[in-house]
Amino acid sequence: MRTEIHLINWRGGNVQAERLGAKILIMEGFESVDPQCPLGGPDGLKDIICEKNGWDYIAACYFGIDQKAFKDIKDKFNHDLEGVHKNDADGIVFITNQHITPGERTELIELASQQDKKAIIYHKERIVALLNSPMGYGIRLELFGIEMNKEEQTSFFSQQNNFLKKLLDKQSEYLLDEIGKRFSSIKSPLKRIERVANMTYETTLSTSDLVKKNDRSGRDKIKVVFPKGDINSSELDLAELCTLHKLLLFGEQGTQLGELRTQKVWIGSPTATGIENATFIPPEPEIVADETTGLLEWWRTNYTEIKKDSPTNKISALVHFHHQFLRIHPFLDGNGRVARFILNQQASELFEIEHKIIIDDTDLYYLALNEGHQGNLESLNRLITQALFGMETLE
Predict the structure, then answer these.
(1) Crossing angle, helix 311-328 and helix 378-389, to 10 degrees?
(2) Buried residues in 174-196 as b, exposed as e (16+ CB within 10 A)
(3) Cα dihedral angle (267, 198, 207, 160), rounded to 10 degrees?
């Protein structure tokens, strides 16, 4: 309640609004977050520039004292939308302390869509929820002076430790990958299977790799191709899945390539010391083959109907398959890489998407999966929709 009161009675002005906006973007997995002129001055119709899952955005902050009329909110949104065109971005992230109804949000998103631009809306209630979550406690304390109770402190520092470890792991993976590529460049051409493996690996590169190379063309005019040219996702069976796993993880040491797991596994935070601290325990190894076969059969059986269905139902089917695959955890390692590659292929078939689909394996991605394990697929649906189309809903 205190967080909402501080937002409604905003006293921070434009400077604090843009700083809060930048912090929210970072919390929500946006990268290359670059505030333009938070202390004033011409910003070229862009408060903040940022990127997420291969899409470029202009972020605009609109914070005022008390609730404004929707006409005023819409006028500001339209003004900021001009900055998207001027700066050749894919879409706008509109961050505001105003209450905006679901119908009004849809209207703003449609305004952007009419101009062939994407829109993501962070309204008052959404910001309150973020600031009252473990990752937001520090921001809430800094901006509003709302102290954390003991339970919140425990959650906050646990989240921060996980975030820092994953950040270090990500940087280490990047450096090792770059070293590996340099060694590979001095070798003579290898067999076709290694070329195919490289192609599939490149398809599933994380956003961080693209950002570090400053490569903004990663999603432009790239046709996602399945490893076996005459096979698509509607024909994927267990044998083909195991072959795909072998291709994607080709050359990695200590990995059971192309083999379903035969061990019990558990998933937890980097600081978890045992299965009793697991955030999720996948099915027993004895039933992995049956569950994986059942999931692939579900996709093959319903493929024709899914392909004819509405866009929102297609997304729901993709999200269901993606979540179930990672819930089953068919392989000892590489499940995320395989799942994201299959998602690329499925989306290219259902929506005729020809750009590379990037889903960075951030904390938000794992939190969305964990929510899915609890029966709530809303966050994962929103994340996958954004990765495919640059906006969080198709409505």
Answers:
(1) 120
(2) eeeeeeeeeeeeeeeeeeeeeeb
(3) 30
The pTM of this model reads 0.74
Residue 388 exposure: Cα atoms within 13 Å on the Cβ side? 28
Q: What is the largest CA-CA distance in the chain?
A: 67
pLDDT digits (tens, 9 = 90+) for 32-54: 898 876 555 455 566 899 999 88
Q: Do the beta carbons of residue 118 and residue 91 sit within 8 Å? A: yes
Give the integer Cα–Cα distance in Å for 142 and 180. Answer: 42
In this prediction, residue 235 has a pLDDT band, given cuts at 50, 70 and 90, of: confident
Q: How many Å is the Cα radius of gyration of the chain?
A: 22
Q: Are 96 and 108 in contact (CB under 8 A)?
A: no
